[in-house]
Amino acid sequence: MSNSETKNRIVFTASELFYQQGFEATSFAKLSSALSLSKGNIYHHFKSKDQLLNAVVNYRLKQTQDMIDCWDIANTTPEDRIMDYVKIVIRNWHKIKLYGCPVGSLSNEMVKLDYPSESVHRVFTLFRHWLKSQFIDIGASDKADEYAMHILSWSQGVATMSAAFKELDFVHKEVDRITSWVNSLRQHPN
Questions:
Q1: Between 20 and 30 A from 22 (CA), which of 30, 130, 159, 187?
Q2: CATH code at 60-184
């Protein structure tokens, strides 16, 4: 396996462990065990856990941008693109009910550990700017950022309640409610 492949494998596995166990609970020893690699091999690629965290955030940013690009290609209307974001809570429900939202849980943990917010909230920022542009396309320029933040906070609330109560019916009802709201913006964007 090449250095690049090994490094990518480390980042992918660290991302999964950060999500499932938390950043603080994921030691290089646990990562080494999960990968069946020596700790020295991991340290060869990442000198510190902070470097690894930065690589994980960059990996998640790329994954998120790729997903957004697919939504942009697959949908002709901003409402449909927004709904692709909204439906994440259904598509990922089986993981969310076990571990919460991968973006939200890491962000919350980083706040508790007093990490600089700009380093770990970049995925939320990417979603925020993209959602804002969708609301601008709908014609809600004056409230585009407010609406983007509404959708983001809505999805975090649904993810938190999904993890707490593990009720898929609740998630479907919430998606139906937010769908009605997004569709109502076609007639009255502001």
A1: 130
A2: 1.10.357.10
Q: What is the pTM of this model?
A: 0.92
Whether the Cβ atoms of residue 106 and residue 120 lie closer than 8 Å to each other? yes
Secondary structure in 3-state letters for 25-81: CCCHHHHHHHHCCCHHHHHHHCCCHHHHHHHHHHHHHHHHHHHHHHHHHHCCCHHHH
Residue 112, Cβ density class (10 Å: 0-12 exposed, 13-18 middle, ≥19 buried): exposed
The architecture of the domain spanning 1-47 is: Orthogonal Bundle (1.10)
SS3 content of the chain, % helix, strand, coil (to 5): 80, 0, 20
Domain map (residue ranges) of the chain: 1-47, 60-184
State how far the Cα of 187 lies from the Cα of 190, in Å rounded to an integer.
9
Q: Are 128 and 145 in contact (CB under 8 A)?
A: yes
Residue with tokens 């091999």: 41
pLDDT digits (tens, 9 = 90+) for 28-38: 999 999 999 99
